[in-house]
Amino acid sequence: MTYCLGIITRSGLVIAADSRTNAGVDYISTYRKLFDFSVPGERVIILCTSGNLAITQSVITALERDIENQTETNLHTLNSFYDIAHYIGQKIREIQDRDRPWLERDHIDYQCSLLLGGQLPGEKHKLYLIYPQGNFIQATKETPFIQIGETKYGKPILDRTLTYETHLEAVAKCALLSIDSTMKSNLSVGPPINLVMYERDTLVLRHRLQLRLGAPYLAKMRKLWEESLRKAFDAMPNLEWEYGDEAGDVFLD
Asked: What's residue 246's pLDDT?
């Protein structure tokens, strides 16, 4: 399991991912799940992966080989983010079609999902979710964040705090809190955490961060967040109970 998160706002993008891969209670390992295919000054392309690790690694390797071999179609030759998302979707289908019979024979889940974000010259910055089937959707002003992997624990803070107008620095803090909340509730998500922040129209990825296990900032953030939640909880008014006239009364709609 993993947790990857992409957030788009008017001023840019924040994309983050954990690095834990859990193959059982006695085998936990870490693999990078955030990949940078950018060309500074020309294009910014960030990918996050979730799902079957062998499939996602094959997809990333195929994308890298197309660039190295200077094939006619690759991440550095396509001129729209829509075409890039379509091209990655085709790679997912090709690799799944190749490996599916063998994985299905042993009842292994072969599916994967990817987050794609960045900007090309002449286009707005964009964020896509690419499904296991190779099709995809785009984040919008009304739905400015996309999650893949273990999504449920980190979603409430996103729903309550984010809008398309939120400042990028605040978005970055929110992304880390979302991942930390997920780590608190699910051991299959864990550090190192990789996070990037992209300022729109710069075509350069200036802000990168990796937080390893025991990182002082993570510890400080978790402590402050837990203290703030306790204070907010203590400030909530007590319930205004209704009492029946007789013991055993049942309240009916």
From this structure: 58
